[in-house]
Amino acid sequence: xxxxxxxxxxxxxxxxxxxxxxxxxxxxxxxxxxxxxxxxxxxxxxxxxxxxxxxxxxxxxxxxxxxxxxxxxxxxxxxxxxxxxxxxxxxxxxxxxxxxxxxxxxxxxxxxxxxxxxxxxxxxxxxxxxxxxxxxxxxxxxxxxxxxxxxxxxxxxxxxxxxxxxxxxxxxxxxxxxxxxxxxxxxxxxxxxxxxxxxxxxxxxxxxxxxxxxxxxxxxxxxxxxxxxxxxxxxxxxxxxxxxxxxxxxxxxxxxxxxxxxxxxxxxxxxxxxxxxxxxxxxx
Length: 284
Hints:
Elements: H1 12-48, H2 58-65, H3 69-81, E1 85-88, E2 93-96, H4 98-104, H5 113-128, E3 131-138, E4 141-148, E5 164-165, H6 172-178, H7 182-189, H8 204-217, E6 220-223, E7 230-238, E8 244-253, H9 254-257, E9 258-259, E10 262-263, H10 266-282
């Protein structure tokens, strides 16, 4: 006879089957989920490789990430479909897309500029019957962080939240560039310039002279250089250390902003900038 200690309990075999089944299920789940996790990790690695770079070729992305060419290309195409990556056929370079900018615009920095500026932008839009903007300079581009329309005035749609404007057009792009270090200005002036309208400045020497004037006077009026018949007035906002943190601007019909070649509402814009500067200082 077998001793008692050699006889398995009645449910041991069933328990063993259940454990085996659970183990197989876990293995199957792991196999099914691992490729997705790996793909996500690789996609994030690709996105991070663009830090500090305006664009990269496929070979440059492959080198930066250590991924093989086929995998890199497939992931870039997938992210292009979702708007996270753009491709320039002329230069064969990939760039971060508008989806990234839209997400970045929702991220609070050291101080949440958008939250602090929104009431000020609302007042500007309502009082002046125009569209008010908050923007920052980032990696050679001026990015719109917030845009507020007045329901009774003209709605300017040329600059969406998360989007950028050419550095030589509009009010805020030229204003923010004018306060950059000389080396940065020189680098930007070597780039090709877009002529959004016949009024857009595309000559580097002329633009440099205008940037010098903007920095000296502390504001800029852009007339008809993004869209004919529309103008923009922009003023700088400094942080607690005196550095340029952002720009506040309004855009509308040219007669709303210009009279005899001079800007209307400049005092109102400077007061709005001063209020945002006060909020920035008290947030330190």
